[in-house]
Amino acid sequence: MIVTMRISVIGTGYLGAVHAVGMAELGYTVVGIDVDAEKVAALARGEAPFYEPGLDELLAKHAGTGRLTFTTDFAAAAGADVHFVCVGTPQRRDGLAADMRYVEAAVDSLAPHLDAACLVVGKSTVPVGTAVALADRLAKTAPVGAGAELAWNPEFLREGFAVEDTLHPDRLVFGVTSDDAERKLREVYAQTIADGTPVIVSDLPTAELVKVSANAFLATKISFINAMAEIAEVAGADVTKLADAIGHDARIGRKFLNAGIGFGGGCLPKDIRAFMARAGELGASHSLAFLAEIDAINLRRRQYVVDLTRDLVGGSVANRRIAVLGAAFKPHSDDVRDSPALNIAGQLHLQGARVSVYDPKATDNARKVFPTLPYADSAVEACRDASVVLHLTEWQEFRELDPAELAGIVETPVVVDGRNCLDADAWRAAGWTYRGLGRP
Ligand code: UGA
């Protein structure tokens, strides 16, 4: 019976914590396991260790009922029918490749507790070929041997919409090597499938590749429109109108065509780099050579804003007050991993600017990675006496700012809209010099 299925989730970061809660919401008995005792303690208290809309409510609903528990003890995974591996695969410090040590450690810590038939399901984003290697590793190290079967079930959730994406994914991908594994995954997701979510069943390498190719495509779409922004900047055209116009072509679509300061976060940037590294290992560097250009276009956007800011204050930012609105890599998230906003703030700070950064949710995380940056407690405080205001993360709060009020507290009313989403007419009407990106 579905309701008695027991699930373990290894790794309780952005992906694992939401997946564990989602599995509990589907009615399963779930244990979340992580090596980070602090994170586990917070989750066990029913507190999300990061900001994700809707997560606190579901945690409070299930933590404490006994159906959803969290621990650092891998022995708690023993006896579960399905184990989801959800640990991170960050970029290695010594190159572009993914750091696989957390995935390997997770599997090695889990394996000794697998003494009955079960399914181990990889969800982490990994270089193609990982699953086959892990299946081999499991068969050799688990007491049940090949009875611990490996499957791959990539995750496509977006931060900020993670709960919604987990409960209502737009597709499910099952990489399997047996009918049994497929049956088990169909049982886990029975409710989601009944709701109409399409299922694609494939082999292991295809399932791994679906994930990285989807992210490579999304990154390409963003860098494409940012390349158009570069052209618009030199041709005196408007990239937002261009995006609207080409986006009406259903084959292109308007989503992910917002030009601005480019993509960041813990996924897109490192995933395209790891994908290139893996292609190189497979002797197919040429196939993904274009992704180096996608990465380069993306990083140029940050530089462009730094250079534009310098121009706007007359050639040097030294000792100039610069307000930075936003630190998270995108709104609805407190994640600052590879955040373009924080990177721009950091570059200006290092050039001697008196930067003041405000973010509604990400300030604590920003302080951890960039403690020397000055942070403000509100947008208004950040803007006080500023020579330029940089709008870098498109929080709703920033769209609701009153440009007339802000004009009265800055030194010079100049705003750079790094996300092209402020009401340009309203800001101009209030006396501001408004600069969008890729727009006249
Ligand atoms: C991304 C993918 O969208 C998810 O499908 C995937 O599951 C996830 O990575 C992952 O691999 O785990 P996420 O990193 O949460 O999700 O954020 P996105 O919504 O993709 O945004 C990524 C970056 O692109 C942000 O910095 C955002 O500001 C930027 N972006 C997005 C643009 O600059 N322009 C756009 O039009 C869209």
Automatic annotation (TrEMBL):
GO biological process: polysaccharide biosynthetic process; UDP-glucuronate biosynthetic process
Binding site for NAD(+): D34, K39, T89, T125, E159, K270, R337
EC number: 1.1.1.22
Keywords linked to the UniProt accession: NAD, Oxidoreductase
Keyword Oxidoreductase found: yes
Molecular function, one GO term: NAD binding
Residues annotated as domain UDP-glucose/GDP-mannose dehydrogenase C-terminal: 323-424
Catalytic reaction annotation: UDP-alpha-D-glucose + 2 NAD(+) + H2O = UDP-alpha-D-glucuronate + 2 NADH + 3 H(+)
Presence of the UniProt keyword Cytoplasm in the record: no
Pathway connected to this protein: Nucleotide-sugar biosynthesis; UDP-alpha-D-glucuronate biosynthesis; UDP-alpha-D-glucuronate from UDP-alpha-D-glucose: step 1/1
First-level EC class: oxidoreductase
Binding locations of substrate: F156, L157, R158, E159, K211, F256, L257, N258, A259, G260, G264, K330
Entries under SMART domains matching the protein: UDPG_MGDP_dh_C (SM00984)
PANTHER family (alphabetical): UDP-GLUCOSE 6-DEHYDROGENASE TUAD (PTHR43750:SF3)
Family: Belongs to the UDP-glucose/GDP-mannose dehydrogenase family.
Protein name per the record: UDP-glucose 6-dehydrogenase
The species this protein was found in: Jiangella alba
